[in-house]
């Protein structure tokens, strides 16, 4: 679907909104999950993002791609959700439960074992490293797009990405050695 | 950093898909349709003549009642010898409104413009100036310099930045800050959080300021804190220790944070939240007057931290 016309519209109708969700819904959900690490919350965040996009579409004027614009909304909504005290309790609970020997949420629904292992490592990174890595790995955002989205300098994004990749590789090697 | 993506990306990419289901799509569509319907109903009510009459009548009654109540209040104040509410005085809210909530929430810290550097990566690395191609040398104070360079052995020719400090870097070497470069660089001493620090700041992107707070010891420079924004150093709460005010207007929202040290830990408070700023509102910090300015569609209001309080109080312009 060509989304260039969205630079010039003031409103979108339900069909166009539905098409946008079909095109970017999974990505928005995935990015929300990378921030929140909570599947149920990611669902709520992703829906909220498209509701906001529906009402704010007139503010999109092609200053970025529609995907980056939706990601910026996702980030705002997800971080606002994380700030609520209610969620802090949930996160704390998640941290405690993740120490259990049961497979992590990501591992459980990934079929490829190696991929599952790597995602497990990625999701255990700090949010600042995890976020840039997921945007680079899964969503192919350029350094410039990430810098704009995250409000950081390109240098900082590069540095975080470098540290994130290193951290994953280091932990991956460690796990492999342990498995031998 | 490697310019190409690592091999393991191929293994992982696409295996972790979000799942925005049809049910979720229907929820969204239902929500916007329902809200549209409500808006239409509201529009109808707005144009309804009888409703307008009713609203006018209620407003008139409220205004009349407000006037009577104010007169009564003025009379009471005058009678008891208390000063009447004077606009020149700060309007201190006795309620919990505009309370600053300081937190050390680790999940949010990286996104609130402050980064705490872990010990293992805190030290500037030393490089020989012969291993770099200098692009620019900026004099900081007649003794120290800020350098922009590329590395001779790197193919990509990424730009790096570093410092040469008298008494710290040896002749023929520089201390590497990292990727990128800054314009309008400033270097000054800092007493933020009651620590002996140095601040290196500059423009590091379009509409983006980077501020590095560093410790300079005998032979080393270490990262201590980093702000992805401007950082104003001021003792707002009057406890004798300077806080940092971080302000940013990049991206979608401009945000203002107060960052302080409490019990040896960095804590921060979101000024936008304390002022209940909504999307479209603007919150800025005015360093000369040490006030926070909230601009909304209703007008402009100014706030200051009450002495010894974790609360913003409204002040007259």
Task: Describe this structure as you would to a colleague.
- The complex is a heterodimer of chains A (about 180) and B (about 325).
- Mean pLDDT of chain A is about 75; it is low at about 85-110.
- The longest helix of chain A has 26 residues, at about 155-180.
- Chain A is built from nine helices and no strands.
- Chain A is about 75% helix and about 0% strand.
- Chain A is globular and about 55 Å long.
- In chain A, helix 2 crosses helix 3.
- Chain A is an all-alpha fold and about 180 residues long.
- Chain B is an alpha+beta fold.
- Chain B has helices at about 10, 20-45, 50-80, 270-275, and strands at about 115, 125-130, 130-140, 145-150, 160-165, 175-180, 185-190, 195-205, 210-215, 220-225, 230-235, 245-250, 255-260, 265-270, 280-285, 290-295, 300-305, 310-315.
- The longest helix of chain B is centred in the first third of the chain and has 32 residues, at about 50-80.
- Chain B is globular and about 80 Å long.
- Chains A and B meet through helix 1, helix 2, helix 3, helix 6 and helix 7 of A and helix 1 and helix 2 of B.
Secondary structure layout plus pairing:
The complex is a heterodimer of chains A (180) and B (317).
Chain A: H1 14-36, H2 39-56, H3 66-83, H4 85-97, H5 105-108, H6 113-123, H7 127-137, H8 143-150, H9 154-179
Chain B: H1 8-12, H2 22-47, H3 49-80, E1 114-116, E2 125-128, E3 132-139, E4 145-151, E5 159-164, E6 173-179, E7 183-190, E8 197-205, E9 208-216, E10 221-227, E11 230-234, E12 243-248, E13 255-262, E14 265-270, H4 271-274, E15 282-286, E16 291-296, E17 299-305, E18 312-315
Antiparallel strand pairs in B: 1-10, 2-6, 3-4, 4-5, 5-6, 7-8, 8-9, 9-10, 11-12, 12-13, 13-14, 15-16, 16-17, 17-18
Give a concise summary:
Helix content of chain A is about 75%, strand content about 0%.
Task: Write a concise keyword list for the protein shown above.
A: 180 residues, mainly alpha, 9 helices, B: 317 residues, alpha+beta, five-stranded antiparallel sheet, globular
């Amino acid at each position: 679907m060509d989304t260039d016309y969205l630079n010039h519209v003031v409103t979108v109708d339900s069909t166009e909104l539905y098409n946008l969700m079909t095109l970017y819904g999974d990505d928005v959900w995935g990015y929300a999950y990378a921030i929140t690490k909570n599947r149920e919350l990611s669902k709520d965040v992703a829906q909220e993002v498209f509701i906001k996009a529906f009402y704010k579409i007139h503010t999109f004027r092609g200053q970025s791609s529609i995907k980056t614009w939706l990601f910026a909304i996702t980030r705002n909504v997800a971080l606002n959700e994380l700030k609520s005290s209610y969620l802090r309790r949930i996160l704390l609970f998640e941290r405690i439960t993740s120490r259990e020997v049961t497979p992590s949420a990501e591992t459980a629904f990934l079929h490829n074992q190696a991929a599952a292992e790597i995602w497990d490592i990625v999701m255990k990174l700090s949010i600042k490293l995890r976020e840039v890595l997921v945007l680079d790995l899964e969503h192919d955002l350029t350094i410039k797009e990430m810098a704009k989205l995250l409000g950081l300098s390109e240098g900082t994004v590069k540095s975080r990405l470098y540290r994130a990749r290193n951290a994953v590789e280091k932990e991956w090697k460690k796990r492999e050695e342990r498995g031998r | 950093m490697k310019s190409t993506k690592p091999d393991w990306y191929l293994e992982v990419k696409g295996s972790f898909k979000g799942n925005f289901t049809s049910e979720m799509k229907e929820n969204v569509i239902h929500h916007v349709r329902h809200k549209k319907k409500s808006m239409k109903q509201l529009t109808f009510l707005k144009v309804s003549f009888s409703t307008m009459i009713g609203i006018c009548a209620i407003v008139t009654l409220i205004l009349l009642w407000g006037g009577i109540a104010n007169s009564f209040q003025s009379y009471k104040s005058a009678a008891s010898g208390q000063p009447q509410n004077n606009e020149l005085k700060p309007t201190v809210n006795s309620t919990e409104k505009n309370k600053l909530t300081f937190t050390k929430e680790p999940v949010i810290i990286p996104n609130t413009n402050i980064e705490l550097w872990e010990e293992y990566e805190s030290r500037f690395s030393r490089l020989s100036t012969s291993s770099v191609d200098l692009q620019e040398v900026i004099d900081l104070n007649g003794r120290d310099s800020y350098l922009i360079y590329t590395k001779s052995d790197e193919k990509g020719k990424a730009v790096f930045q570093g410092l040469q400090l008298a008494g710290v870097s040896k002749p023929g070497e520089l201390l590497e800050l990292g990727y990128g470069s800054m314009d309008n660089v400033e270097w000054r001493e800092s007493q933020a959080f009651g620590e002996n620090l140095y601040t290196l700041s500059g423009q590091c992107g379009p509409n983006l300021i980077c501020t590095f707070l560093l410790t300079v010891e005998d032979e080393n420079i270490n990262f201590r804190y980093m702000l992805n924004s401007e950082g104003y150093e001021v003792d707002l709460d009057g406890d004798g220790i300077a806080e940092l005010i971080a302000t940013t207007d990049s991206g979608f929202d401009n945000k203002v944070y107060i960052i302080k040290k409490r019990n040896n830990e960095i804590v921060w408070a979101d000024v936008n939240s304390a002022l209940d700023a909504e999307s479209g509102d603007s919150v800025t910090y005015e360093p000369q007057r040490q006030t926070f300015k909230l601009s909304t569609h209703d007008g402009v209001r100014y706030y200051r931290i009450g002495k010894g309080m974790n609360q913003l109080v409204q002040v007259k312009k």
